[in-house]
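Final report, Chapter 2: Outcomes

The project's central promise was a pipeline that accepts a single protein chain and returns its three-dimensional structure in a standardized token representation, suitable for archiving and comparison. That pipeline is now operational. To close this chapter, we reproduce one record exactly as it appears in the project archive, with the input sequence first and the structure output second.
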Amino acid sequence: MITACCQQAAQAGVRADMPLAQARALFATPSVRIETHDPSADAAALYRLAVWAQRFSPVVAADGTDGLLLDVTGCARVWGGEERLLRAVVDAMQRLGFAARVMIAPTLGCAWAVSRFGSKRACLVSPDSVREALAPLPTAALRVDGAVATQLGEVGIERVGDLLELPRSTLPARFGSELLLRLDQALGQAIETIEPVRPVPPAAVERMFDGPTDRVEAIELTVRELLDEVTGELERRSCGARRVDVELLRSDLGPERLTITLGRPSQNAKHLWQLLRPKLERAHLGFGVEAVRVCACVAAKIRHEQAECDGVAGDASAAEIERSCGELLDTLRNRLGEGRVLRASLRESRLPERAFEMRDASDTGSVTAGVLMSDRPSVLFDRPSPSEVIALTPDGPVHRLTWRGEEHGATACVGPERIGGEWWRAHPTQPDRTRDYFAVRDERGRWLWLGRGVESGRWFVHGVWA
């Protein structure tokens, strides 16, 4: 069943609660991207978006599965007026890639109704036009129960304007007290509050000196003690640091900030100190440091693991090996710089040169690419090396080849293995989209991976087995 769709799919006729097979049938081409609905991931993403939206208002709450409620009382003057605040929110959402409907109204009920049922994507409702804005909207815009909206429709009350013309005393007896409460909340005649998100502040500690000091030993000792306090707080939260900032508040200059990033959450104060120490030794202390502040700006949950069984420690577990490798990568990354420690990651492609990509070593995202269970050379050349081949037939097997200026005789030949190219990526100057590969052993006993372009007939060596 379809739970949500993009604007392009909606224009094609896709709707929520539609069977997936019916939605597929609305498209002439099979190039439709379908994602599995994950409610927990959506809720987590909406929570992160609510925390991000606190730059516009200190009071932000998640509304359902696809909305945010912001109490912007008194915030407009910071942005130079409500119109500029409205435009700032719209522009910020567009930069994040969201198609948002943004409304500012005197009440939460009015803003909710106009944003979800109004005709405009961005609107500012003045205090004098609340009734006018609510009148053309359906009764469902009042956030009443679906059964109440159905009962109102049965008696011909389909718009909020129709409801406003009825005597208030007659509504609770037939439709319940909720209808009157929602109507008063939308009109501002009843109090309505929201429960804002309250993000947990990062673990941070600070220590002031009696006076400015330029003694490196005292500063290093203070940083180590503060790291112990921060890691202790992280342990109580069952979290680990992914980024740690150390600020040196200097007496004559601005703060000196030292930052380290980690590929996996860590509570090891010794490891954090080993990463910070080289940066601290190169820090400019000016005429002295007045205070030191340590903050674990980015943290993540750590899964509890059993280190030993029955009080007897065995060989190094997989978790310990992974932790040691992570600490090594952290050391290399912080000393060599971001983006300089890479790892190979699988990519969905049958072409050898496109079957992997180099990604940052700290990127621990899951890999969904399939693995082709075929024999491949241990060394793959960045660029295939041209060669001249004498074959028994035009399509092989290989008899002799000339590669890098030397002639070699073939003592064994396995193949061909045809690999089709990615036609959607083919370039007119690269006609060899389809290739035939051979595993050839030369007179030295070395195995070479030879390829032949089907369209051009050119031969090349793409790799060797070490």
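Archive annotation: The mean pLDDT is 84.
This record, like all others produced under the grant, will remain available to the consortium after the project formally closes.
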